[in-house]
Amino acid sequence: MPVPESAPPQPIDGPRFDVVGIGNAIVDVLVKAEDDVLHNHGLTKGTMALVDETQAERLYASIGPGLETSGGSAANTMAGIAQLGGRAGFIGRVRDDQLGAIFAHDIRAVGASFQTPAASSGPSTARCLILVTPDAQRTMCTYLGASVGLDPADLDLQMVADAKLLYLEGYLWDSEAAKRAFIAAAELIRAQGGQVALSLSDAFCVERHRDSFQELVDGHVDVLFANEMEIIALYKANSFEEAVDQVRGRCQVAALTRSELGSLVLAGDQSHPIEPFRLGELVDTTGAGDLYAAGFLHAYTRGLNLETCGHLGSLCAGQVVTQLGPRSQGSLRQLAADHLGLSF
Amino acid sequence: MPVPESAPPQPIDGPRFDVVGIGNAIVDVLVKAEDDVLHNHGLTKGTMALVDETQAERLYASIGPGLETSGGSAANTMAGIAQLGGRAGFIGRVRDDQLGAIFAHDIRAVGASFQTPAASSGPSTARCLILVTPDAQRTMCTYLGASVGLDPADLDLQMVADAKLLYLEGYLWDSEAAKRAFIAAAELIRAQGGQVALSLSDAFCVERHRDSFQELVDGHVDVLFANEMEIIALYKANSFEEAVDQVRGRCQVAALTRSELGSLVLAGDQSHPIEPFRLGELVDTTGAGDLYAAGFLHAYTRGLNLETCGHLGSLCAGQVVTQLGPRSQGSLRQLAADHLGLSF
Predict the structure, then answer these.
(1) Is A78 a residue whose pLDDT tops 50?
(2) Which class in CATH covers the domain with range B17-24+72-115+149-340?
């Protein structure tokens, strides 16, 4: 949706949630692995591949011991917003199994609302095998399981209507039913005067759904999150600069992350380059993009300026990469106070 | 079993396993918590409390997000031995559920043998909620679930007969059936010329089963592992020194761990004080005793002298406390080479 206006919205009084996210409800299995493991399994470093249950089990049987932790891109973002003190809700589908119980516990334990009923039949809760290589990069193989069955009937429309902003992960585009749920929710919140944010999730995911994502960005999205590979893939651009020219003006705000180069926040004809935060040794990049979105949106829904949104995003991303796993084990509020003087 | 001889045994040619462990097959849920959480739930720091499923779920619902990882005291020790290059086997009982599959995967993934059939009915796989406080101490609440059903019929007698040494965790004493399985296995391996090691596991566990443990130490145990609180509890001693006097000579070797004071290895009239290793910031003491036993027994079953056994135990314990969780995420073999010049 091309818009001339670049100022962030003022906080809207009334809504029960700052942000409601829709995404795949996933439990991550983090496994340390050498580069040759990726090679042996034909995996491309830094990306996400979809696998069926048989492939997931074969891969699992061949890799080292894991650490299980709740994940899912949008879910990680909602957890981060809740940890920052925001009112976050998550919509996604688990099975009524042990991993589903872990997922539900963990997102509620940080104060996010999660009410989507667990499926009582069908595939098990989604799992993502995440291979963390010595360079701290993460390479993911996802078995979507129960999460793929999310459809419009699972949508808590009241929850969406009660939000200032709806956050959607691009990964949902891999399920036709989830995609429909997604668009229905986006139309609902915009009709209520709320905004829509989208994360492109993964370059391969963008390749699979390029046209559909382009239409979505032009027609439904206020705030777009993408990393360098993803925004280049979206516009089949030859460079980051060319992709920046393409996306500018197509949505109200685009926040483009570039790993160690920081990020670039675009709004109208403005560009805000944002420095990255280095808070310690790089351990595992899992969740970096998700936590960037968490920090950004927490500041954004509080009406803070776009530079502050970018800095808080960078700070949260900078924290999560110093630990194993995609959800912060430290206090993001404390960090925001210490590094940015923000008290939430 | 009082013995005058203090020299460690020479490696025995032939056995398929260096060490076979019997214990509760548990998945740990690690949760960072403040001290007041322990207080509110009436928990004693540093100990293990048994809870039923309802209590476990109530506690889980009230605490923060967790990190799930395979655990179980003897299982952690067997994983450590396998990581050091030893031939380790584990006997313990899971349910055929998702947590059971995680447990089985993780112990096999480090190269330990685990063949105990998963129960197809009855309670779910055992879980241990581990609250890690800011001082890095761990306080545990265990729901024994399927693990409590281990009985002599589950014992792989061939596996026990094929081992140089059988390792038993005291926690099994909380199940009458498991205790019987335990003693049957100990008698079998001693009849084959192998040795038996016991870890006392927990001071409260010792309190619950003091007489039985005293008999076991006198009658069946060659190598005893205990921390300071446990050995004091075993002999109702007034001090560590008094407990040392009590245990000396009752088994071939006693390895007594004392946290930051290191450990003391007793054999006959010899005493070997062992310095601790500090390899980094103290993060989580979960698994420290288990990994001490792993290092110790790996050296012991290779016929190395008792001081070396103690140093390797200290090194492995020193590594695991610098990370979250009870199983080493680094290379123990590399550490042994770097710090002790031992190549396995």
Answers:
(1) yes
(2) alpha beta
